Amino acid sequence: MKINKKTGLLDECTQCPSPNRDTRPENTEIDLIVVHSISLPPGQYGGNAIECFFQNELDKNQHPYFEEICDMQVSSHVLIKCSGEIVKFVPLHERAWHAGQSNYQGRERCNDFSIGIELEGTDTDEFEDVQYRQLAQLVSSLRSSYPAITDNITGHSDIAPGRKTDPGTGFDWQKLNDYLGTHD
Ligand SMILES: [Zn+2]
Fold it and tell me: Fewer C-beta neighbours within 10 Å, C or N terminus of the chain?
């Protein structure tokens, strides 16, 4: 997976630009990856509602849950769908709006210095093998482009405890590490 340093875009991905982004604070080094999970409506897979949500184009008439969330302005840099397809929303060098109020090892506002990766899923369902494979490949590319990341890979629930529960108990960190072992 190639990262274009100039545009901050991942080659060979579906590009789905989100307006929910801005510039990172000056001289910020990207040194954290935050793993999330999302499905819309929760527990339903395969549609394009996540893409619509991150582009502020969710149709609130399609589902009662959409009505609740349709005015939120959020995004992630990347989504890995259960098919393994990778969708790119925000250039990596820009700030995506995924972490909210958060704290990683004493540093607040994780959006400033992190890359947000959403996996299509829920807090309790198991993720697909292809998602772990894609995530491992992505993490390994990101580490080459942003060496300060090292082992700083965390879950949304770890940086926003009590407020967020994703990626959830269904996410197998050991499995990610096993796949990462085959890439490093
Ligand atoms: Zn999250």
Answer: C
Quote the ligand 1 centre to 25 CA distance (angstroms): 21
Of 36, 22, 51, 11, whose CA–CA distance to 154 is shortest?
36
Q: How far apart are CA 38 and CA 79, in angstroms?
A: 9
Distance 117 CA to ligand 1 centre (A): 9
pLDDT band at 184, cuts 50/70/90? low
Q: What is the pTM of this model?
A: 0.94
**What's the chain's average pLDDT?**
94
Maximum separation of any 2 CA atoms in the chain, in Å: 46
Question: Nearest to residue 8, comparing CAs of 118, 112, 124, 90?
Answer: 90
128 is catalytic: no
- 125-145 average pLDDT score: 95
